[in-house]
Amino acid sequence: MAYLAETANPHQKAAQAPIAVLLCNLGTPEAPTASALRPYLKQFLSDPRVVEVPRLLWWVILRLFILPFRPRASAKLYKQIWTENGSPLLKISRQQQSALQDRLDAHFGAGQYQVHLAMNYGKPSFSDELAEIRKQFSDQVIVLPLYPQYCGATTASAFDALSKELRKQRWVPSLRFINGYHDHPFYIAALKASLLKDFEKNGQPQKLIISYHGTPKSYLEKGDPYYCFCMKTSRLLAEALGLSGEQYESCFQSRFGKQEWLQPYTDIRLEQLPEEGTKDVAVICPGFSADCLETLEEIAVENRDTFLHAGGESYRYIPCLNQEAEHINFLAALVQENGFSERRKSQNTMAVVVA
Ligand SMILES: C=CC1=C(C)c2cc3[nH]c(cc4nc(cc5[nH]c(cc1n2)c(C)c5CCC(=O)O)C(CCC(=O)O)=C4C)c(C)c3C=C
Ligand SMILES: [Fe+2]
Ligand SMILES: [Fe+2]
Q1: What is the pTM of this model?
Q2: Signal sequence span per UniProt (predicted)?
């Protein structure tokens, strides 16, 4: 294998280079059309971390039963949430990148950190972003997948995409890989602040529904900690808000395929709740750091219809933390906690202030 060539004496330039912060998220299609959805879904659903079905069998299923149909159906959904600036997931991720850059510059001085963004599927790719990091001679990289609850299908996929690129490099940088933050006190505090803001404006709902993206149940049975991390986030959030067991429940959305996924299913619960006497709910999705198709369409539109048709009276969706100040402050604190500051010449030990 021919490793990527380095420019002359990169180590001399590295001493002055910024620490790279690489934010990672899932990725999104380039347009809300079937022709843009096809390569996106093909790349996404071919990832063995996402779909753990024997490769040959899955190759046939994907090509015969999924790729001929799903792109058109998904494109219809994406059309409903698409903005002038493209996909919400990419737009919000860019806003997070720039807000975090501002926050780190304000606290540590310009040039100390450079925030990058890479997506697992589609663009900006890990390949392009790692090329940019090399161009800036950063030999210290903090990788921050924006998935609060570790999951093999997401966090480990980001790790795979990163290592696939790094193994081409002659000079591999120092790395910190943040594999999750489901119980970080500042993350819980940011979620609490967002909920309290909503409760102050709209009143406390009869029940808070805490909905996470699902995975096949078999991943839990094979030892993936995602389910337990989701439950812990919910418990800590409920404790922080002083909610009793009857005032909240956790559930799992976005099923795909025929096998059993993590339960209870969000859509089924929303259909049952009015019959059980719960007619007023607020829904929050703390497993998503940025709003996307799964929150803006599935939760805010589809599941609202389900609940109201089943006899529910009041349904509101509370947006993700997105580029909220509390969220960005928390991410800055996470970067600092996992940082390389002890090796920097211009040490700045000032703590990032988290509201
Ligand atoms: C096929 C299996 C899937 C698993 C397992 C899975 C896990 C998983 N996904 C997210 C976050 C997101 N998923 C998004 C979209 C999406 N997810 C799947 C399938 C699986 N996800 C598909 C096929 C799609 C595409 C849309 C569709 O056709 O339904 C998104 C939104 C992307 C966007 O562009 O807005 C996110 C984010 C997590 C956190 C997770 C496991 C924990
Ligand atoms: Fe997904
Ligand atoms: Fe969905």
Answers
A1: 0.95
A2: none
